[in-house]
Design goal:
By secondary structure, the chain is an alpha/beta fold. The chain has a single domain (about 5-365), classed as TIM Barrel, CATH 3.20.20. It is about 40% helix and about 10% strand. The chain has helices spanning about 15-20, 25-35, 85-95, 115-130, 150-160, 185-195, 220-230, 230-240, 245-250, 265-280, 290-295, 310-320, 320-325, 350-365; strands spanning about 5-10, 100, 140-145, 165-170, 195-200, 255, 295-300, 325. The longest helix is centred in the N-terminal third of the chain and has 18 residues, at about 115-130.
């Protein structure tokens, strides 16, 4: 077995919202109890009760509670991803992982109240730090932030910067592109603390007012939306480069998770071409856009595009410098999660070691 660091594992709060009350001030517990987030038919509520009802439900047969694979259900029958002991056994031990980066998916980018989002995300961070990280040193956590309030998000980053096991900052996106100065307090804190920014779909994209939109309008189906999610990553990467974020924050790293990666090559071609033509409009972009990508941006494997001809994929990976820019991710326990032993099987040992292990070490550093 190769050394493996899984950069995308999703934990959920066992017992849902009520479990988080102990991590909230008493007055805020009452506020949350009055929200519709805690109401409804408990049989139909997901464990991640922070998520509003989603108009795009996965239609695949056998899916558990919306997006989960059935074999990730713990013996207790609780929702997949809520039992850390089972995750240790079912994922970390089964595949002999060196580390698993926990990304607690939050749809707070669909919320309209920044104070509510602040309290909720802070409670989530405290919960996973206390209930998951002590159980296995291989568990690492991407600290969640609430994009509605960048200043308070920066404080949250600094609050956990020295927490053992914190390795990154998970930033749910708004319908404000990442190059906008709006996010600067978050970037400043992340750079100061040496924590990469991680972006990842939440379920809110293309669905709720305020969350990122997909080009052209609202998709009609889960299938259409899932395919179109790459548009959000492309637009935000383009924005990061064109607005000069990496000149202003030269030590910042951004990890783009679960948006695919093959699209990055033609995007870099186009950015480089137009930079040469109209660079007078962005004098702060001092290098080829592709150079910023190679130096500051990383991508993850899941979902990995699978062309009929493997050589086509290998060619794209070579063009994007995958030996430096691509990290392994499983997306456990979601419906389309990748088994670590069943991908990259046709690649040479050196490339597999880079993707499975070395690139993550270089991206997240000694915190792993």
């Amino acid at each position: 077995m190769p050394r493996i660091i899984d950069c995308d594992v999703h934990p959920y709060v066992k017992g849902g919202l009520q479990t988080l009350y102990q991590y909230m001030p008493t007055a805020w517990q009452a506020r949350f109890e009055g929200q519709s987030l805690a109401g409804g038919n408990s049989r139909n509520r997901r464990s991640d009760t922070e998520r509003p009802a989603n108009r795009y439900e996965n239609p695949s047969p056998g899916i558990v509670r919306g997006v989960f694979r059935p074999d990730a259900t713990p013996p207790s029958g609780e929702s997949p991803g809520t039992d850390p002991a089972f995750v240790i056994d079912d994922l970390l031990n089964r595949y002999q992982l060196d580390a698993a980066i926990l990304i607690p998916i939050q749809s707070v980018n669909a919320w309209t109240d920044p104070l509510l989002a602040n309290v909720f995300v802070s409670a989530m961070n405290d919960y996973f730090i206390e209930e998951w990280l002590p159980l296995d040193s291989r568990f690492k956590l991407a600290i969640g932030v609430f994009p509605q309030d960048p200043e308070k998000s920066a404080n949250e980053i600094r609050r956990h910067a020295n927490t053992k096991g914190s390795v990154g900052v998970y930033l749910p996106l708004l319908n404000i592109l990442m190059g906008n100065h709006y996010y600067y307090p978050i970037y400043e804190a992340a750079q100061e603390c040496g924590l990469p920014i991680i972006i990842h779909p939440t379920g809110a994209e293309g669905t709720y007012l305020g969350a990122p939109v997909l080009a052209g309008g609202l998709p009609g189906t889960y299938f259409e939306r899932h395919v179109g999610l790459t548009q959000i990553a492309q637009a935000n990467l383009n924005s990061l480069i064109c607005e000069g974020v990496f000149e202003r924050f030269p030590a910042l790293k951004v990890v783009i998770e679960e948006f695919g990666f093959t699209w990055a090559v033609p995007l870099m071609w186009r950015m480089d071409m137009d930079w040469k033509r109209v660079r007078l409009e962005a004098p702060w972009v001092k290098k080829l856009p592709s150079q910023y990508v190679f130096e500051h941006v990383r991508f993850t494997t899941q979902p990995i595009e699978e062309p009929d001809n493997l050589n086509d994929l290998l060619a794209i990976m070579q063009m994007m410098h995958a030996q430096e820019t691509l990290l392994f991710s499983s997306d456990y326990p979601h419906w389309d999660a990748d088994n670590p032993t069943r991908i990259l099987t046709s690649f040479n040992a050196e490339l597999k070691d880079r993707i499975y292990y070395q690139n993550a070490v270089e991206t997240f550093g000694a915190r792993l």
